[in-house]
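$ ./design --mode recover --in tokens.txt
reading tokens...
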């Protein structure tokens, strides 16, 4: 039994290692050849796991081979457009200028129900509101509404807006993220003083503290009735990460 557990653990870690090196795509975003490789890796890991008579190397070596093939194909696709089109395919425009392209639906093996379902998943109930809909090579639908139906933007109103970047997570479940503090040009003394002024004398009392690029700090404490604080902790011009 111990042998089976060890084999299963080794094969599991090997499969995770190989898939992790393939990149950060989600399953729904895999290109066709990447999906084939992922399925083959699962099969290669399952065979030695089920049969203890099969050497572990019979599963690990082919997985590493597939990883090398994936890397080679990925590099080749970057450098060669024709190979990229052959392996990945090309996006299909299913709705162009508000008109459903029936020929593209047939070519993509899509029916109207599939199209309407994908539009609803993208938050569109009425296809009359869609100007362009593109079926990407990963199978994901990109939907762009007609200009008359898109939300009003600050540019439409001729308003100037500041930069919006990724907020820095300074405290997470009581743990101070020193790397993010350094990234924002801050230190623990500043954080402790700022939190103490809002009623959090110890960072371990904080569930989450997040500083955005506008200088606003969001703090939520721990407990059944957590305290919430949202206040300006930095001048916007000092939020430079």
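writing sequence...
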């Amino acid at each position: 039994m111990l042998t089976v557990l060890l084999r299963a653990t080794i094969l599991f870690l090997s499969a995770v290692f190989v898939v992790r090196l393939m990149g950060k795509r989600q399953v729904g975003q895999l290109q066709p050849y990447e999906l084939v490789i992922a399925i083959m890796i699962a099969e290669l890991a399952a065979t030695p796991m089920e049969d203890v008579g099969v050497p572990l190397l019979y599963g690990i070596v082919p997985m590493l081979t597939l990883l090398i093939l994936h890397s080679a194909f990925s590099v080749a696709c970057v450098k060669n457009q024709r190979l990229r089109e052959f392996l990945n395919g090309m996006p299909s425009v299913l709705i162009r200028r508000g008109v459903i392209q029936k020929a593209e639906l047939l070519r993509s093996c899509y029916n109207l129900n599939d199209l309407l379902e994908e539009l609803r998943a993208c938050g569109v109930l009425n296809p009359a509101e869609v100007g362009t809909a593109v079926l990407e090579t990963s199978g994901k639908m990109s939907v762009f509404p007609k200009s008359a139906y898109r939300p009003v933007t600050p540019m439409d109103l001729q308003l100037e807006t500041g930069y919006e970047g990724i907020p820095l997570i300074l405290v997470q479940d009581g743990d101070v993220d020193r790397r993010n503090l350094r990234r924002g040009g801050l230190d623990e003394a500043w954080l402790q003083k700022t939190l103490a002024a809002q009623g959090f004398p110890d960072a371990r009392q904080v569930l989450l503290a997040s500083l955005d690029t506008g200088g606003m700090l969001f703090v939520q404490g721990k407990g059944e009735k957590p305290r919430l604080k949202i206040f300006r902790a930095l001048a916007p011009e000092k939020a430079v990460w």
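exit 0
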